Amino acid sequence: LDSCVKAMGWKHAIMLRLVCKGTSEGSGEGWSTLCEVMASDLGLFLPRNSSGTYVKNKKIFFEHLYPARNKWAESEVASDFKIRVGVRFKPGPPLSNRDLVLPLHQRLKMLKKGEKISFEEAKGERGLPVELIEQLARTGVEVDADVLQMLQEAKQLACTVQNAETAARNEDRVYTKDEGAWESEGGGTVRGLTEEETRRVAETSGALMGGEGGSAATGRTSDQGGAVEEHGSDENEGQRRSKGKPRVLAVLPCKVVLYVPGLGVRPFHFVKTFDGQKATQQGVYEEYAQDAVVSALNGFNACFMAYGQTGSGKSHSTFGPQGILDRDIPEFGEISCDYGVVVRAACDVLDSARMARGSRCAFPMDIQVSMQYIQVYNENITDLLGGGNVALRTGEAGKVVLQGAAEAAVSSRGELIKLLRQGEARKRFAATAMNDHSSRAHTIVVLHLLHKTERGGGGLVRSELHMVDLAGCEQIKKSKVTGQAKREAVGINSSLCVLKKCIRALNEDKGHIPYMESKLTMLLRPAFGGSSRTYALITGSTDDRHMEETLQAVRFGEECSMISNHARQAASSLEGAAKAIDAALEQCESGMRSLEQRGKTHLAAFAKLKERFASLSRKRADLAMPSRVGATVSAS
Description:
The protein is of the alpha+beta class and 636 residues long. It is built from 21 helices and 20 strands. Strand 13 and strand 14 form a beta hairpin. The chain is globular and about 80 Å long.
């Protein structure tokens, strides 16, 4: 079979794979060969582990290779924003063993048969040992990262259905000046969804989005009778603070469980988590951030950003510990285990560019790499390479131009480190009560990739990789800053709020994204625009003194990943996740049928809807659950 795959080329190989199904498992040799053939034929890149071995499996094929199949095609890239959110915790001192008070509905669900609850526990005057609650937090069902991504795509699909319907209605409507009203082109009623279709769309999209149309559970146990999970809305800050401090109960592969006073046990779902001392710089890069690098090498715009409170390890994850850039770096081979994402990503790009130019490469190409290094401080942009001020200008096709920012060519690791050292010397730092070396500005490293090939008549592709070390969000009363430092903190928090608004609008496929409200978001517009891939690493501390900030950081990450109340409930079991995904697919089918009947298949919104439907349908078929029945719209 493998010899046939190599001989037929990747397009025919896909057909052969689907027909023969010789290897259904994601890690089978057939998928490995298919990845190798497609990468070789189309000049695409595969992720590599620390030993230099390429990772080739079914997931890599559909996540990285198949979406980049038109890398060299001269066509406009469709907008398809995707974000993945992970969490890394900074180890802190041992936590106190204080008792924790659970809400009554969670405490009742923990009772064994015949067990009674005391009056003091019912009133919330007596808590339970933290060891017991931590044990409960680690039990129950946990869905994997692929299912969480599917739930995120299901919510995006619901948004896309609504946007496609809006686009269809807008095309049908014309404004009559004499009447001062909107009418259909034929003078009659605009054909929209039927009453039943409208009801189903409202219920499904509302549930997926956690809005009024959805049913938000108030609390429940897992299907295995294990961890108690809270899915209700959060209480106000004053009430929550009066009941104690939050606490990290468990860090599982795709879930963080916190104790939230007033809410009890509260899960937060992410595609990847890294726990304290167990996490390494290499692990964070290979298991999470490297996907952004592979996306950029395959022609997509990509972004990695670290978000969290000041002192939580953002700069450590992004660049490494203080003084790391002063060390010499080998030009080839492995680098120090202390280097962060920026150095590892840039080295990976340079190594890939060197191999692509090699005589043994099946698809020879030239990748030119250049770098810009800037910071945003109180809405002022500074070039960290040259030291001058930078102005934002809008160029051709709405492209953001950094006027005054140097763009230095990078062809070796030595040149890279030299440039990073220059920028480090110009960064703004200050000591606060929470961090002796607090970054007071957002730092952005931009790698510009220019891909050239002479094969097949030649081709030229541009892509960008943004790596962002966001300034730490902070509570002024805890950081105890005054004067200029206080104004800095206000500016930092304000720009982070705008960033949150932009990510929310992109996730919901809104027509207007508020990039212009902040210099930070204006800078990140190229990274977020088009068919982009964004990876956000939320950093937090397990230290009792900073748990309020950690709680706010993981909430920000959850909102970015579109995990609503309904999605959290669905993520507590594979069956619940499958039902939520099926509901989104059925809603999409209904919307597509309506658009087809009205002759709206030419709309760009319909094409995006069809593409997302096909992608989610394929992933749903891989779930170990009964498949949907009654599908009538082709996903091809």
